């Protein structure tokens, strides 16, 4: 039983590490970037944003520009970006008009960690205005700025747990298989050692 618990703990640690490595690999490689949508999002029914969204394998990019002041009366929320981006950028009413907010998320099969950039300055080129974010080049720009100050990373624990499940299963199976083979080998060695000790000495002529 102790061996099972130890293997489960080790498999969990390995799963987290492998999952984070997979997310980092997806960001590093960026396969198959495509434009998902450019549309107006009425956040919270009052906050108009222009939002550009791109996707790649294990990577999501959301670029949002606050284009107008809040509406006087609320309307039905429409055009919302993915929930991982909304959670990372929220609350949306904290931003001034003309704010530009970008989020680069990574993880497979779900986005588990998000890097966020915010600017209100016109002399800063990144993140650019969402209406010009068509080609997907901004995602590459974000990848090159992952570690620039100020750093703002948002971790998604539920998504991280889901991403870790297949890695946990593989790691646990490999550890149990290795332990089982080691135990069988140790048992076979013990039997051979016991047989050697218990056998009568060879007769001398």
Distance between the termini: 52 Å
The main sheet comes to:
6 strands, antiparallel
* Strand elements, count: 6
Radius of gyration, rounded?
27 Å
Which residues sit in consecutive blocks of at least 5 with pLDDT less than 50? none
Strands of the widest sheet, in order across it, are 1-2-3-4-5-6
Give me some keywords for this one:
single chain, elongated, 41% helix, 4 helices, 205 residues, six-stranded antiparallel sheet
Structure, explained:
The chain is α+β, with helices and mostly antiparallel strands and 205 residues long. The protein contains four helices and six strands; from the N terminus they run H-E-E-E-H-E-E-H-E-H. It has helices at residues 2-29, 83-89, 137-144, 157-198, and strands spanning 34-43, 47-56, 59-66, 100-106, 113-119, 153-155. It has a six-stranded antiparallel beta sheet with strand order 1-2-3-4-5-6, sandwiched between helices. Helix 1 packs across helix 4 (157-198).
Question: What is the fold's blueprint, element by element?
Answer:
Layout: H1 2-29, E1 34-43, E2 47-56, E3 59-66, H2 83-89, E4 100-106, E5 113-119, H3 137-144, E6 153-155, H4 157-198
Antiparallel strand pairs: 1-2, 2-3, 3-4, 4-5, 5-6
Helix pairs in contact: 1-4
Compact summary:
By secondary structure, the protein is an alpha+beta fold. The chain has four helices and six strands, in the order H-E-E-E-H-E-E-H-E-H. 41% of the residues lie in helices and 22% in strands.
């Amino acid at each position: 039983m102790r061996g099972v618990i130890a293997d489960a703990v080790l498999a969990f640690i390995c799963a987290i590490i492998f999952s984070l490595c997979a997310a980092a690999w997806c960001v590093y490689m960026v396969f198959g970037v495509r434009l998902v949508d450019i549309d107006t999002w009425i956040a919270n029914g009052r906050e108009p944003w222009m939002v550009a969204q791109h996707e790649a394998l294990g990577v999501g990019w959301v670029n949002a520009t606050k284009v107008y002041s809040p509406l006087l009366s609320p309307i039905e929320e429409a055009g919302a970006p993915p929930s991982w981006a909304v959670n990372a950028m929220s609350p949306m009413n904290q931003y001034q008009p003309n704010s530009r907010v970008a989020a680069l998320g990574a993880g497979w099969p779900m986005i588990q960690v998000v890097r966020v950039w915010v600017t209100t300055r016109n002399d800063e080129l990144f993140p650019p205005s969402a209406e010009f974010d068509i080609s997907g080049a901004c995602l590459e720009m974000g990848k090159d700025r992952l570690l620039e100050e100020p750093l703002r990373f948002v971790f998604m624990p539920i998504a991280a747990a889901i991403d870790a499940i297949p890695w946990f299963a593989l790691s646990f199976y490999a550890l149990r298989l290795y332990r089982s083979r080691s135990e069988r080998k140790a048992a076979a060695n013990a039997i051979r050692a016991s047989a050697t000790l218990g056998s009568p000495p060879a007769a001398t002529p």
